[in-house]
């Protein structure tokens, strides 16, 4: 489903250039539930954004569901995002002036789905995340957990192949975190590929595979575990 | 497309303040521009109205008393013009479109069934009313060549005279009135609003009739002229004066012996005034419009900036750059055109209201009448605002649509 080889990413600001990803090789198969871990600043979000075709990379190659994602035009990128990808962000990124149902329906608008059908499907997915009684609430009338569930419904509504989540539980307490994780697992059972960036071992342990980033490179789990222990001692 | 429009309307409704501010800026610009244009036109109409029914290019020449001794003749010699002068002008001076002599008595009594009125009595040839071509005839007809040829005893009378002689509701045409004790038939009633009604306190009869009744012979009291189009009225006036002075042995520099009045003089002054008004209106109008344009551009730039994050989110959900740009531009075009149209409607409405109020109250403001708007100018102004609004939004919209979604979402 996802194949990265030797991905490099630099952030340039003026004269200075920051080498953030230093050659990432990664292969994620269809239907996997994967977490990406690593210390702050290790490049997790950067990697996820590249996976989501939200950001460009400087070197290497990336294939998503058989499509090469290299030097894409924005329009092509938009189609890829719309068709294959669903995003869940730490800060929810709901449009503040649209209610829950309308936020969920928005990706369908860009697919050219009619209004009636959009509303119907949006309600279905809101029901799936357990918010059918809140469909007319504006984002600022929802709790953090509820917002994240709306965001998940929005990520699912186009039936994407891959769901990318950047610290989806970062702003939530442990109970809500558990609710959201159950939701992800339920979605995963439906056959989606899910990639979750997280800091929380609790979250990572519920995924089938953990990928550790350190200093812009993928390291093996053992090495990082050793390091963790070393830090703990 | 319809769905897109709904999406835009929805966004606009959810961002009421921003929409209202933009709309108000455009509305105000157009509204003020319309009012300004309307008032300017009102002023022009008012000044124009003051000229009454006179065409703006006529010249009058009449005889006076000499004030310069010339060729052995003394001062204060009265100069009497005659039919021969008219023939001489016709034959020797090019560029005359219409020429007409007039004999008149400043004060004569007109009577009808015991009522009477004073009026200026004029004998005129057929051409005379070509000089006053804008004079409206309320009833009846203008004098014609047959009246002159057959020396008919017919008169046309001004409305002031008609009102004094006839009861309301009585048609003066066909009635027989006494003009200086001679019975004559009324063939027409005219209204000339010049001279605050004074021009309607007159009676006109065929020149031939006048000459026969009053024995004025070939004498002419006033010569009326109009230049051919393209001929300079001042030049013509100068040539005519030269000729007439020569014919009557009046010194070339004697301004009292032969006198003249050229309507082109005040007309020129008024034209200057109009030019002034027009320049002023355009100056202020363009200023208003520029302010509107700057306002729209600012709001568009700010709007796009403020919405960069939203744009990022929409792109992450699959919005193409085209859909982002077209939505933003359509949004601005919609707001601008609706607001501009409202400004147009309200501006024209207010002008109509003022015009209606003035008319129904019968009030007459000095130098102000019938404010109205040149629709083409108004529409052009609105289109200009729409185009500028779109252009102003285009740059930031394209830029916002080009950057990666992640960059856009990072904006705050
Ligand atoms: N837009 C940017 N411009 C310049 N440098 C950036 C930018 N975004 C991220 N970086 C840098 O790239 C590095 C990796 O950032 P990234 O956001 O991927 O880290 P992360 O692993 O997601 O961290 P966290 O766990 O805190 O979210 C950091 O050192 C950060 O300073
Ligand atoms: Mg991060």
The share of residues in helices of chain A is 25-40%
Biggest sheet statistics of chain B: 6 strands, mixed, barrel
Largest interface: A-B, 27 and 25 residues
> DSSP helix count of chain B?
13
The overall average pLDDT of chain A, rounded, is: 88
Measured as a percent range, the helix fraction of chain B is 40-55%
Count of all domains of chain B = 2
How big a fraction of the residues of chain A is strand?
A: 25-35%
Tally of contiguous helical segments of chain A? 8
Which class do the helix and strand fractions of chain A yield? Answer: alpha/beta
Q: Helix- and strand-based class of chain B?
A: alpha+beta
N- to C-terminal distance of chain B: 31 Å
Instruction: Work out the number of β strands of chain A.
Output: 10
Sum up the overall morphology of chain A in one term.
Answer: globular
Tell me how many strands of chain B there are.
12
What is the succession of H and E elements of chain B? Answer: HHEEHEEHEHEHEEEHEEHEHHHHH
Folded structure, characterized:
The complex is a heterodimer of chains A (233) and B (412). Chain A has 233 residues and is α/β, with parallel strands linked by helices. Helices cover 38% and strands 27% of the residues of chain A. A six-stranded mixed beta sheet of chain A has the order 6-7-8-3-9-10, with helices on both faces. Chain A has a four-stranded antiparallel beta sheet with strand order 2-1-4-5, with helices on one face. In chain A, a hairpin with a 2-residue loop joins strand 9 and strand 10 (217-219). The N and C termini of chain A lie far apart (39 Å). By secondary structure, chain B is of the alpha+beta class. Helix content of chain B is 54%, strand content 18%. Chain B contains 13 helices and twelve strands. Chain B has helices at residues 2-14, 16-50, 83-92, 128-131, 145-149, 159-165, 207-214, 233-247, 264-306, 308-316, 321-361, 375-402, 405-410; strands at 59-63, 81-82, 96-112, 115-124, 137-140, 154-158, 176-179, 182-190, 202-206, 219-220, 222-227, 258-262. The longest helix of chain B is centred in the last third of the chain and has 43 residues, at 264-306. Chain B is elongated. Chain A binds chain B through residues 49, 52, 54-56, 74-75, 78-79, 81-83, 87, 89, 93, 95, 97-98, 106-107, 109-111, 114-115, 154, 158, and chain B through 3, 6-7, 11, 14-15, 310, 313-323, 401-402, 404-407, 409. Magnesium ion binds at residues 44-45, 166 of chain A. The site of adenosine-5'-triphosphate has 12 residues of chain A, from strand 1, strand 2 and helix 1.
